Amino acid sequence: MSSTVQIRVPATSANLGPGYDALGLALSLYDEVEVTLTAEPEVTVTVEGEGAGEVDLGEGHLVVRAMRTAFARMGGAQPAGIRMRCRNAIPHARGLGSSSAAVCAGILAARALSGAAEFSDDDVFALATEMEGHPDNVAPCLAGGLTVAWYEHTGVPRMVKVTPDERIRPVVVVPSTRLSTEAARELLPKDVPHKDASFNAGRAALLIAALTRRPEREILLAATEDRLHQSYRAPAMPESAHLVERLRAVGVPAVVSGAGPAVLAFSASDSQDLIAPEVGNDWHIQQMDVDPVGANVQFPETR
Ligand SMILES: Nc1ncnc2c1ncn2[C@@H]1O[C@H](COP(=O)(O)OP(=O)(O)O)[C@@H](O)[C@H]1O
Ligand SMILES: N[C@@H](CCOP(=O)(O)O)C(=O)O
């Protein structure tokens, strides 16, 4: 069995407006991790790109922690040492699923390197969700495309993947400011009015129809309305809230990406030119594709 594996994991945008904690989209923006198990009992991590100079470079690194958790869960021995190289393009704490990507990468690396065939894809999904907390990020990261995630009454997470219409072009607008997902979740009320829950249920159902069959701008605009999370979180990211408002006012279906503060817009060819004039200099606009396949695992010699 090889002692080195390469993992590529996509960024994800969760919620998509009305699908709070349920809907997610995989994006063509990736973190790449190469992991080698070593005999020397030390953990060494190098990071290029996002997170460089910020994240822990030893046992505290999120990918390493996910690997350790997965090895323990699979029942095998922990590796003596781990050497890891990360090349990250997913910005941290912006609402683009960086922590989900890191956790998925670690679990997939541990499974690949241990050769534990009995640890199924469902087991990977369940463990990543348990560690990260958000199946709406984990599902598209693992499976690609557009996913609907939910929990069984037993607490087991499940997902269904659907393929978005090829005309759907995500545009992500990323600010330099950060907001941790944990902090953004603390802003949400315990209860919401029944009429708001019913409003979101209808919009979330419409959004699946819009993204897969009817990606017209006016349908996407209605389908991306939300009353369950964005307004409650707006005080923590007023500039994101204003940008979403301005984009929607000129006809671009825009939402807060995940827990923010990045903004996700669905751009048809006729709306791309509408986005740039609304965005200030301190934001970075990235036109993307939907990633169709999700996390990728390769052994170097087969690449
Ligand atoms: N590739 C990574 N390597 C190490 N730590 C990471 C990585 N990605 C995310 N993290 C950790 O997760 C935090 C961001 O998680 P979170 O607040 O959930 O935001 P996000 O929306 O980006 O997932 C980072 O500040 C960092 O501590
Ligand atoms: N449903 C979660 C999604 C968090 O996504 P992230 O990319 O910000 O981690 C939420 O809205 O809290």
TrEMBL record:
<keyword id="KW-0963">Cytoplasm</keyword>
<keyword id="KW-0791">Threonine biosynthesis</keyword>
<dbReference type="Pfam" id="PF08544">
    <property type="entry name" value="GHMP_kinases_C"/>
</dbReference>
<dbReference type="GO" id="GO:0005737">
    <property type="term" value="C:cytoplasm"/>
</dbReference>
<keyword id="KW-0067">ATP-binding</keyword>
<feature type="binding site">
    <location>
        <begin position="91"/>
        <end position="101"/>
    </location>
    <ligand>
        <name>ATP</name>
    </ligand>
</feature>
<dbReference type="InterPro" id="IPR006204">
    <property type="entry name" value="GHMP_kinase_N_dom"/>
</dbReference>
<comment type="function">
    <text>Catalyzes the ATP-dependent phosphorylation of L-homoserine to L-homoserine phosphate.</text>
</comment>
<comment type="pathway">
    <text>Amino-acid biosynthesis; L-threonine biosynthesis; L-threonine from L-aspartate: step 4/5.</text>
</comment>
<comment type="similarity">
    <text>Belongs to the GHMP kinase family. Homoserine kinase subfamily.</text>
</comment>
<dbReference type="InterPro" id="IPR006203">
    <property type="entry name" value="GHMP_knse_ATP-bd_CS"/>
</dbReference>
<protein>
    <recommendedName>
        <fullName>Homoserine kinase</fullName>
        <ecNumber>2.7.1.39</ecNumber>
    </recommendedName>
</protein>
<keyword id="KW-0028">Amino-acid biosynthesis</keyword>
<keyword id="KW-0418">Kinase</keyword>
<dbReference type="Pfam" id="PF00288">
    <property type="entry name" value="GHMP_kinases_N"/>
</dbReference>
<keyword id="KW-0547">Nucleotide-binding</keyword>
<dbReference type="InterPro" id="IPR014721">
    <property type="entry name" value="Ribsml_uS5_D2-typ_fold_subgr"/>
</dbReference>
<keyword id="KW-0808">Transferase</keyword>
<dbReference type="InterPro" id="IPR000870">
    <property type="entry name" value="Homoserine_kinase"/>
</dbReference>
<dbReference type="GO" id="GO:0005524">
    <property type="term" value="F:ATP binding"/>
</dbReference>
<dbReference type="GO" id="GO:0004413">
    <property type="term" value="F:homoserine kinase activity"/>
</dbReference>
<dbReference type="InterPro" id="IPR020568">
    <property type="entry name" value="Ribosomal_Su5_D2-typ_SF"/>
</dbReference>
<feature type="domain" description="GHMP kinase N-terminal">
    <location>
        <begin position="62"/>
        <end position="145"/>
    </location>
</feature>
<dbReference type="GO" id="GO:0009088">
    <property type="term" value="P:threonine biosynthetic process"/>
</dbReference>
<dbReference type="InterPro" id="IPR013750">
    <property type="entry name" value="GHMP_kinase_C_dom"/>
</dbReference>
<dbReference type="InterPro" id="IPR036554">
    <property type="entry name" value="GHMP_kinase_C_sf"/>
</dbReference>
<feature type="domain" description="GHMP kinase C-terminal">
    <location>
        <begin position="218"/>
        <end position="272"/>
    </location>
</feature>
